[in-house]
Amino acid sequence: MFRWAAIYGVIVLFPLYFVSLPPGARVETHFGFVGAALVFQGMFWIIGGAPEKYRALMPLAVIEKLVFSVPALTLYALGRLEPPIAIFAAIDLALGAGFLAAWRVTSR
């Protein structure tokens, strides 16, 4: 699960380095988010290679998914976010739930 999430994450995130941002957008925030999220894809890949060894990192993986999905879905519910972004947030929330389930079933 973690390796598939890493592949999905790189496919979705890397192109964000090349999107045109609207005037007045916080460029440093955008690129900071994309860069940090891509680093986490590396962590997911590592966890996927040895889940028992890296079990302690799994809660961080869950948190990484929640820090985007929960605020994004909240903004969507308030009518302040476009549906395509909410779809990606929902996918991240599902991945976070999967990561949590993986953490619970992985032996210590």
Short description:
Helix content is about 70%, strand content about 0%. It contains four helices and no strands. The protein has helices at about 1-15, 25-50, 60-75, 85-105.
Architecture overview:
There is one protein chain. The protein is an all-alpha fold. The protein has one domain. The protein has helices at residues 2-13, 27-49, 58-77, 83-105. α1 packs antiparallel against α2 and α3 (58-77) packs antiparallel against α4. The protein starts with a helix and ends with a helix.
Keywords, separated by commas or semicolons:
single chain, 108 residues, transmembrane, transmembrane helix
3D shape? globular
Which structural class do the helices and strands define? mainly alpha
Kindly provide the radius of gyration, computed on alpha-carbon positions and rounded to a whole number of angstroms. 15 Å
Q: Write down the oligomeric state.
A: single chain
Termini, distance in Å?
A: 18 Å
The major beta sheet can be summarized as: none
Percentage of residues in DSSP E strands: under 5%
State mean pLDDT (0 to 100 scale).
Answer: 97
Beta-strand segment tally: 0
- As a percent range, the share of helical residues equals over 70%
* Uncertain parts: none
Number of helices: 4
How many separate domains?
1
Q: What series of H and E elements makes up the topology?
A: HHHH
Transmembrane segments: 7-25, 31-50, 57-79, 85-103
Keywords: Membrane, Transmembrane, Transmembrane helix
